[in-house]
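Morning run. Coffee first, then this:
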Amino acid sequence: MVDRDVVARRILALNEAIAHLHRSGAGDEARLRSDALLRAATERWMQVAIEACIDLAFHVLADRGLPAPPSGRAAFRELATEGLIDTLLGERLGNAVSMRNVLVHDYVGVDLEMLARAVRDDLPDLEALGAAIGRLL
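And here it is:
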């Protein structure tokens, strides 16, 4: 059975991160280059948003008695296979895992153009996952 508290906390974290990422400048490469605090906050909120989505995916799959996938990308693919999200959304969310890995593991070499583009273009996918998981409750 889905632990509603775990899911609710992750959805809350996801929504909070997305709200911060919708702030002025988070999707503007020039602003990210010129404002170190904005850049750091944007990197962190993007990491939190993606990590919350990964956690949600693993939690739902475990609740369904499915084995843990080997990666976040595979978890999103499995959600799509189970019919819980659209296949294309699963692929795009899998790509978000790459952004999360850069933010966590290659933090000294974050491509600010790529980060700004992710903020501008990818938030609807993260929101869609949160909404899809929320409907499962």
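The radius of gyration is 15 Å. Good start to the day.
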